[in-house]
Write a structure and sequence with these properties.
6 strands, alpha/beta, Arc Repressor Mutant, subunit A, 51% helix
């Protein structure tokens, strides 16, 4: 049985997802959250197999929530269900630790396939998004600066761009401030940036961070 937590700030969306999943014999929805704080507070309530997460709920950044979930419950799988089809956002989510990315316009059958694929340890992105990503790579073969970062450097980049201080990032990632400062220095060097302001401008321009 796949134990599922649905996190979305729209009650109608949560109800619709729950209805689709409730007809399946191998899935059960044991919890719901309407914002990122509620989501994080429920992590210890059940041995969650899968979290279906809207990346743009109120409160902290959805990317930050992905990172925090993976820190606290590394075996819990995360399937992003978003209204944003852009490949940059999908790549950011997966780099932050998400196991799948699906657009809310997807048909119920695709949602069920994604849930089963991700819950079994696989990765899933919709065929439409995959095609978009391939076309994007063909039209722009040059790698963007942030694509040269390691996974941890990318996490720190997104957290800095979201306004977190070095101290706050160190606390969230359970690392020393000195280590986070080193990551920041590497980010600036690799991306040829000079300040946190430039990091934020870059992240917004390239859709690596989202407003609530």
């Amino acid at each position: 049985m796949i134990n599922i937590l649905i996190a979305d700030d729209h009650a109608v969306v949560r109800r619709g997802i729950k209805q689709i999943l409730s007809d399946e014999n191998d899935m059960q929805v044991l919890g719901e959250a309407s914002n990122n704080e509620e989501l994080i507070s429920q992590l210890g309530d059940h041995p969650w197999d899968l979290i279906i997460l809207d990346i743009t709920m109120p409160g902290k950044s959805g990317l930050d929530s992905i990172i925090e979930i993976k820190q606290k419950k590394p075996d819990t799988k995360i399937l992003i269900l978003s209204m944003h089809p852009e490949e940059e956002i999908a790549i950011s989510a997966i780099k932050s630790g998400a196991d799948g990315y699906l657009n809310k316009e997807s048909v119920p059958g695709e949602l069920l396939r994604a849930v089963r694929k991700v819950a079994s340890g696989g990765k899933y992105i919709s065929s439409t998004l995959a095609e978009s990503m391939i076309l994007s790579l063909r039209s722009d073969p040059a790698r963007k600066p942030h694509e040269s970062l390691s996974e941890r450097e990318f996490q720190v980049l997104c957290m800095l761009a979201s306004g977190s201080t070095l101290t706050e990032i160190a606390g969230k990632l359970e690392l020393s401030i000195k280590t986070i400062s080193t990551y920041r220095t590497r980010i600036l060097e690799k991306m040829q940036l000079k300040s946190n302001v430039e990091i934020t401008h870059y992240a917004i321009k390239n859709k690596l961070v989202l407003s609530s």
